[in-house]
Structures are given as structure tokens and as C-alpha cells.
Design a protein that fits this description.
By secondary structure, this protein is of the alpha+beta class. The protein folds into four domains: about 20-130, Sandwich (Immunoglobulin-like), CATH 2.60.40; about 135-270; about 285-420, Immunoglobulin-like; about 480-589, Up-down Bundle (Four Helix Bundle (Hemerythrin (Met), subunit A)). Helix content is about 25%, strand content about 40%. The protein is built from eight helices and 32 strands. The strands form ten sheets. Strands 11, 12, 14, 15 and 16 form a five-stranded antiparallel β-sheet that branches. β5 and β6 form a beta hairpin. The chain is extended and about 140 Å long. It starts with a helix and ends with a helix. Residues about 15-20 and about 400-425 have low confidence and may be disordered.
């Protein structure tokens, strides 16, 4: 029985000590700072005490404090108490220093903090005040530009990914671009970011959340050291404070911070000169090359298409295709250039082509000589050449040539063919002209003479009348604004029709058309176009409620459809609905 009593006494004593455990500790805003920065030191305790004695702060000057804050809260029936003494320090020199122990008496016992080591370095470019929310936001928010390759070749694709890192200690409520990079020395293509996604990661070894804001593919157009300009954002950051609400929850304050990704420099290498072909046009990547025709047999004066195409991965939009050489006797027209190129994080991919229209004049065989295409292969870092096959065009029916020579030039050889001429080479000239004598007429005192004399006098009243009407129209400011908005509405509605199938452009044009129609009919500006105000104004003008609801639904459809997938049939339905609703409102107004 005595043994049980002893164990019970020990257990209750342990529980009492655990429940009544005193915490007294020192915390610093950072353990490494510049000699021109400030340091914040907090001495926190979870129970009130007496005779607090701070350390001497050797190596620092106290520029603020002690500031005392007390927090009392009740959570689920349990009391939570915190008391803090805060000091703001300024280092006196470089070196390693130690924040020594502070002491306090709580319930008759003396408690001490652990010493903290601080490293002071040289002055930093942007000194940060160790005080309050602005410093906390700066330390926990970072905008980073990640470059895929720092030493690319000229015209080699690199990717810049902009990531915004946010510490779990803070939260971000909003951001907007303050300044966008220009990429003046690059060909650039932004990758469309359909939806921003928050992911977990690390920044300098600490857990962070991040979001990818922008992805851009760059092709350097110059060699040497090129600068990638920074992306700059203004961010609204919610930072926790020392204050709490009546329920014990921590209060937050919002700080607007400007963050930049920083300048990035890449060293662009020039393409090697060894083995560089004379006809090299700047193609860099991995490509296929071919020359094809849609016909190889036809009659004279019929046409055929010869297509010179390059496909693969690389700077497809940044070089010229080789020219097609055809023999005499084939009439050649300017080529039609086509591009089917998509851009992703690996660069451009797809194909480009020049399509020539050729028309043979006489019958015979016409050889189209082989042409070659050279490019720089990034995988092997060597130049490669691809040559097309010779194509022979057979013209079966048509006139024979005479002294005209049809030639085909290929590498190292020339084939010539004499063709006989027919006797109708000058059939387009008319040898029997039917000429008629010109009758002499005098202008003086003729009908045309009297008309030219009196017409300016008769036109004066008309000029005065139309000038007055034009002046009245120009002075009608309100009417001009209405006519301009009405014209823009028709313009954008027609523009929306042209962009059927292109979801983003279609709904942007549709929304502009609806807004400009309201400007024309209701005499309101875009900034005043709330849904409630539009409904009220249309109802006051006698428009039926069902038509008003349809108009508001169209505006909402334009807002949502730009961010959600939509089919061509749905776009056609929205266009037809917009035309019908605008026509109905026009009649009822």
C-alpha cells in the first residue's frame, strides 16, 4: 500500500512539473547579416517573471528597445500566456559575435537563455531593417528566373522559367506584373500558361511553396554575353504579427512588396567555322529536307506545284529555305511560304515550306536538279548536309519549240535540247487594223464649255449646305461618341465572326462588341458597366426582362469561356445569339 502511494506521489509530481514547465528562450531575426543591417532579438517566456536582465550585447549598439509585449489567450478552455522583450541592434564592426545569456526570476527560480552566435559580414547593397513586417515579407518571398542553359550556341533554344517562392510563414493574396522583360537580343516566344498551379518545393534547403508564373523560349541572335532582363512583380503579402484577436488567433497585416527575378547573363557561343558550308543559312537543330512535286506528267500550259520543305526541331522561323532552280521552258512563279510550327519548352518543332507554281511551255522532258540544305546539328556539334533527288517532269502534249533552248543545269553538267518553233509565235499581233478618222470638234461655246463654266457657280450653295451640316455633326460631341461606339460594336462583332474557331480572340472581340453597343445605346462607359446597372437601365428603356437576362448571360459567357475550353459550334451559337439579342434590343429601344 505504501509502495502504491509512493508511485502515485511521484506521478502527480511529474505531471505537475510537466504542466508547469517554464520556457525562456532567445530568438533572432537572422544569424548572418551585413554590417549596415539591423538585428532583432526577442526574449520570450511563457510565464510572468521578475528581475529580467538582458545580456551586454557586445559588438552591437542598441538602437531600439526594450519593447515589451504580452499575449493572453484562451483556446478550448486552456490559457496561453506569452511575454516578449524585444531589442533592435546595430553591429559595430565585422566578425563573429555571441548574444550572451539573459536571466529572469520566475516563481523564485532563475532561468537563463542559451547563447546565440551571430556572423556580421561586409555591407550589403540593400540593407534590411530587422524590424517588423516589411523585413519578414522580404525574407520569405523570392522571385527566381531559372535558365535552362547558360552557354548556348547562336540560335539554340533556351528556356526561362519564372517561379515565385513563398514561405509557409506568410501568404500571398494577389500579384501583378510591374515590368516585363523585353528580350531585345533574342527571338522570344511565351508559352501559354492556361492555369497556375501551386506546388511544394525547397528554396535554399528550406520548405517553400512555389508557382510557375511564366515560361519563355529564347533564341539568342547575337554572340557574347547577353543580358536577360528581370521580371518585376508587385505582391500583396499577408504577414503574421505579434497581436492576437479575442479568440487567440494571430492577426495579420498586408504588405505590398516589389520583387524582381534579377538580371541573368548567358554567354552565347558562335557556331564553329570549321566545316561550315558556303550555303549555310543559319539553321540550327535537327532537320529533314525534301523536294516534291504533285505531278510528274502533264500537258503544256498546265501547272504543277513543286514544294521545298524542312521539318524537325530547331529555329524553323529564323532561316531561309534554299531556292528552287528550274530549266528554261518551265515558267516559275514566286513561292508561297507556309509555316506549321509549334513552340514548347524544348523550342520550335514542325515544318516550313515554299511551294512554287511551275508551268511548262512546250512538250519534252524537264529535269529539276538536286538542291541541298545544310544545318548545324546540336547533338553532334557538326554541320550536316541533305540533298534532294533529281526530279524529271515529262510534258507529253504541247507545241514543239524551234530555236528555243531548254537547259537543265546540275552539278558539273549541262543538258541542252533544241526544240522546233511553230509558225504562230506572233499570233497575238493584229496585222489588219480597222482605223477610223477622228472628227474635229471645237471646245469653245460647246455644251461641255458652258457646263464647266456654270457648274462651279451652281455648286457653291451645295458646298455651303453640306459644310453647315458637317459643322453641326462635328459639334455634336455626344452624337459622335454614340456613332463611334456603334461603329466599333459592328466592327468587333464582325471581328468575332472572323475568329470563329479561335476561342480566345473570338470571346475578346465578342465582349468588346457588347460593351461598345451599350456605350452607343445607354451612353455609359465601360467602368460603369456593372450587371445591376445594365439591368436597371435596360428595364427603364422598356427592354423585356428575358432579353436583358440573355444579354447578361452573353457577357458572363464571354468572361468564363476565355478560361474554359469551348467548341466551334458553341462559339457559333454565342455569335448567333449575340446578333439576335442586339437586334431585339435595338427594336425595343
Amino acid at each position: 500500500m505504501k509502495l502504491k502511494l509512493i508511485f502515485l506521489t511521484l506521478f502527480l509530481s511529474t505531471m505537475h512539473l510537466a504542466l508547469g514547465q517554464v520556457k525562456f528562450e532567445a530568438k533572432v531575426s537572422k544569424k548572418k547579416l551585413g554590417v549596415n543591417e539591423r538585428l532583432r532579438v526577442d526574449f520570450e517566456m511563457n510565464k510572468d517573471g521578475d528581475n529580467f536582465t538582458p545580456p551586454s550585447f557586445s559588438g552591437f549598439t542598441v538602437v531600439g528597445g526594450p519593447n515589451q509585449s504580452i499575449s493572453n489567450s484562451w483556446i478550448n478552455g486552456k490559457r496561453s500566456y506569452a511575454k516578449t522583450f524585444s531589442y533592435f541592434l546595430e553591429p559595430t564592426r565585422r566578425g563573429s559575435f555571441t548574444i550572451k545569456q539573459a536571466t529572469i526570476e520566475i516563481d523564485g527560480q532563475t532561468y537563463k537563455t542559451l547563447p546565440l552566435k551571430i556572423e556580421v559580414t561586409g555591407a550589403v547593397d540593400k540593407p534590411k531593417d530587422g524590424n517588423d513586417t516589411d523585413f519578414v515579407a522580404s525574407e520569405n518571398l523570392h522571385l527566381i528566373a531559372e535558365v535552362s542553359k547558360a552557354n548556348p550556341y547562336l540560335n539554340e533554344a533556351i528556356t526561362v522559367v519564372y517561379k515565385l517562392y513563398v514561405s509557409p510563414r506568410i501568404s500571398v493574396s494577389n500579384w501583378r506584373e510591374l515590368d516585363s522583360p523585353k528580350y531585345s537580343d533574342f527571338w522570344s516566344q511565351a508559352i501559354d500558361m492556361k492555369q497556375l498551379k501551386i506546388e511544394n518545393g525547397e528554396y535554399k534547403g528550406e520548405p517553400y511553396r512555389y508557382v510557375i508564373l511564366r515560361k519563355t523560349v529564347l533564341y539568342p541572335q547575337k554572340t557574347g554575353k547577353l543580358n536577360i532582363e528581370p521580371l518585376t512583380l508587385t505582391v500583396s503579402v499577408d504577414v503574421p504579427t505579434k497581436r492576437r484577436d479575442i479568440f487567440g488567433g494571430r492577426l495579420y497585416t498586408t504588405v505590398n512588396k516589389t520583387v524582381a527575378a534579377g538580371n541573368r547573363t548567358i554567354n552565347v557561343k558562335s557556331l564553329p567555322t570549321q566545316g561550315k558550308p558556303d550555303d549555310f543559312s543559319g539553321a540550327v537543330g535537327s532537320f529533314n529536307f525534301k523536294v516534291t512535286t504533285n505531278k510528274k506528267e502533264l500537258d503544256a500550259t498546265e501547272s504543277l506545284d513543286a514544294k521545298v520543305s524542312v521539318s524537325g526541331n530547331g529555329n524553323l522561323k529564323l532561316f531561309d529555305l534554299p531556292k528552287l532552280n528550274v530549266p528554261n521552258g518551265l515558267e516559275q512563279y514566286e513561292p508561297q511560304h507556309n509555316e506549321r510550327v509549334r513552340t514548347n519548352l524544348t523550342g520550335m518543332a514542325g515544318d516550313i515550306s515554299d511551294t512554287y507554281t511551275l508551268v511548262p511551255q512546250y512538250k519534252g522532258k524537264y529535269p529539276i536538279p538536286s538542291i541541298s540544305f545544310s544545318y548545324f546539328d546540336l547533338k553532334t556539334e557538326t554541320y550536316k548536309r541533305i540533298s534532294s533527288d533529281e526530279i524529271v517532269i515529262s510534258v507529253k502534249n504541247g507545241p514543239d519549240g524551234g530555236n528555243t533552248v531548254v537547259t537543265s543545269e546540275s552539278e558539273g553538267s549541262t543538258n541542252k535540247k533544241l526544240v522546233t518553233q511553230t509558225g504562230s509565235q506572233f499570233r497575238f499581233l493584229k496585222l489588219n487594223a480597222n482605223l477610223q478618222p477622228i472628227k474635229k470638234e471645237y471646245f469653245f461655246k460647246s455644251t461641255a464649255y458652258w457646263l464647266s463654266l456654270t457648274a462651279p457657280l451652281l455648286a457653291i450653295p451645295l458646298f455651303l449646305f453640306f459644310g453647315k451640316k458637317r459643322q453641326e455633326r462635328l459639334s455634336d460631341v455626344s452624337g459622335n461618341r454614340v456613332r463611334k461606339a456603334d461603329k466599333l460594336a459592328r466592327k468587333y462583332l464582325s471581328e468575332a465572326r472572323k475568329n470563329l474557331g479561335n476561342q480566345k480572340e473570338f470571346y475578346i472581340a465578342m465582349e468588346r462588341a457588347l460593351h461598345n453597343y451599350l456605350k452607343a445605346k445607354l451612353h455609359i462607359q465601360t467602368s460603369e458597366m456593372s450587371k445591376e446597372r445594365i439591368q436597371r437601365l435596360l428595364k427603364e428603356r422598356g427592354v423585356e426582362d428575358t432579353i436583358t437576362i440573355e444579354f447578361i448571360a452573353l457577357l458572363e459567357s464571354c468572361e468564363f469561356a476565355r478560361y474554359t475550353p469551348s467548341s466551334t459550334s458553341a462559339m457559333q451559337q454565342d455569335y448567333d445569339k449575340a446578333s439576335r439579342v442586339i437586334a431585339t434590343i435595338d427594336k425595343q429601344l
